[in-house]
Design goal:
This protein has ten helices and four strands; from the N terminus they run αααααβββαααβαα. By secondary structure, it is an alpha+beta fold. Strand 1 and strand 2 form a beta hairpin. Helix 1 packs across helix 4, helix 2 crosses helix 5 and helix 5 crosses helix 10. It starts with a helix and ends in a 9-residue tail after the last helix.
Length: 188
């Protein structure tokens, strides 16, 4: 646990959130963290963060621990959520299930219900890694993903996809999110 806290206080928010999400997944799998609970509620984590001598590092670690979720399924999702925070967008609901009149459509990486926008982080592995594709060809994986997206759009929601290149270029990611209909939260 100390190593995780060390990363959360010393790294950028993206790195801190990757580690925090990993800790949340592990604790959740072991029954020690409820799905919506904060890592700050885990004995020892808040105390270790509070003991750090630098206020900025404590704030970053508290933010990462507060945002951590066992539902983040990839490093790309964690880095994306850090970018959303940096850009001033609301944090999405993770792994939301969508259904239509034909039944189950799938889960989305990100869902902003108040703004009616679905988001997907598209890492390359989804299309080229045979284990992730579930035995279908890359072409079939792309086609099935297109059908899934069309069904979700058919529910009347906005849809946005981004990749590592977008996460690495926050201004480009911001433009994509805005074009999909997302608006940054109002800050006091």
């Amino acid at each position: 646990m100390q190593t995780a806290v060390d990363v959360m206080v010393s790294g950028k928010l993206g790195n801190a959130l990757v580690v925090a999400d990993g800790v949340a997944r592990k604790l959740h799998a072991g029954g020690a963290l409820a799905t919506g609970a904060s890592l700050l509620s885990v004995p020892g984590i808040a105390d270790r963060i509070a003991a750090h001598p630098f206020a900025a590092a404590r704030r970053r670690a508290e933010l990462a621990a507060g945002l951590a979720s066992p539902l983040a399924e990839s490093v790309g999702e964690s880095f994306s959520r850090a970018a959303f925070e940096y850009l001033g967008f609301e944090q999405p609901v993770l792994q939301h299930v969508f259904n239509d009149h034909d039944g189950f459509i799938g889960r989305s990486d990100c869902w902003w219900p108040e703004q009616g926008v679905v988001g997907e982080f598209d890492g390359k592995g989804k299309y080229v890694d045979a284990a992730i594709r579930g035995g279908v060809t890359p072409e079939e994986a792309l086609y099935l993903e297109k059908l899934r997206e069309d069904r979700i759009r058919g529910l009347g929601y906005g849809f946005v996809r981004w990749s590592w290149a977008d996460v690495d270029n926050p201004e480009r990611l911001r433009r994509k999110l805005l074009a999909a209909g997302l608006r940054p939260r109002n800050r006091p």
